[in-house]
Amino acid sequence: MQKDEIIKLFQEKFKGANPEVYTSPGRVNLIGEHTDYNGSFVFPGAIDKGMIAAIRLNGTDKVNAFAIDLNESAEFGLNEQDLPAQGWAKYIFGVCREIIKRGGKVKGFDTVFSGDVPLGAGMSSSAALESTYAYALNDMLRLGIDKFELAKIGQATEHNYVGVKCGIMDQFASIFGKKGHLIRLDCKTLDYEYFPFDPKGYRLVLLDTVVKHELASSAYNKRRESCERAAEAIRKNHPEVEFLRDASIDMLNEVKNDISAEDYKRAEYVIEETQRVLEVSDALQKGDYETVGRKMFETHHGMSKLYEVSCEELDFLNDIAKENGVTGSRVMGGGFGGCTINLVKDELHDSFIADAKKRFAAKYGHEPKVYDVVISDGARIL
Ligand code: GAF
Fold it and tell me: How far apart are CA 27 and CA 377, in angstroms?
């Protein structure tokens, strides 16, 4: 949705002076999945799909919000502790509460918002929503919160108001995104580096299964708990191991008999994935996309067999990618449905997509959705 359009919709709802308009994007992640909450590396980039919000202070201590795409309103007081009933309003409420917790003086506002990040596709629609409001309130109210803290406010919203114990990747990418660049982020130190990403001769394309399996957030939290248990066991012998990112396979093997087989598999995946991200960043610097692609396939295998966050539909798309000679393909984001991210040579793009659509539809009764990725800027005022 364009700025003019959302201002018009805001005016229909609230009348009066024109609002400010802010936007924040969703993200892709080239590699480094389920590594963020293990203090390890990720490789995301903001995309050209996101949330857009029109906001105007209303001189009260109430927030009146309207979700354009759902045609739903929500209202809450800034001093209330009770969560709003509407799922989407919890994100706005959470962001306000987290800013207040940090001493920020949030004031009441009227707002309408809309988005084009597909929901449940693993492209971080929720981080886009959190980042939009965290960025906007900070800017409008001159709160002076730095960008790292804005990302943490979004993450804390997930933890404390939504119940997903996520890492920092999605909110970081949404706030720090830069056009044409991926971000290699060290989630332990929050050191980050922009990598120009313009793979000549290749395209990055998402295939969305349009499937979201039940209980994804509780399964996600369980993965995190497994990793924390494994790290804790390793720490007994190696006190320097704060996160699994600091551990090696040898260290993990020392505690093999002290942890469950399931926790072992989860930790094995994370330790291997950390290594893969480092290899991919070397390969990217050399423009070696064949290695990048090979690592993506390895990640898919790990996510499917060790971390067990893939599903039948995603594995099917991954097989089709392999059969079509795609350079790299894997499940992207938290998993349990959503998208695969595919690195594919220009000349194979169309035939791969056609084959995937045909075979997926024959098996599951609908085509996957296709999104070509454009790496874009992070949160901003329009
Ligand atoms: C979700 C989470 F929100 C991220 O923090 C990250 O863990 C990702 O799943 C998996 O890499 O998007």
Answer: 10
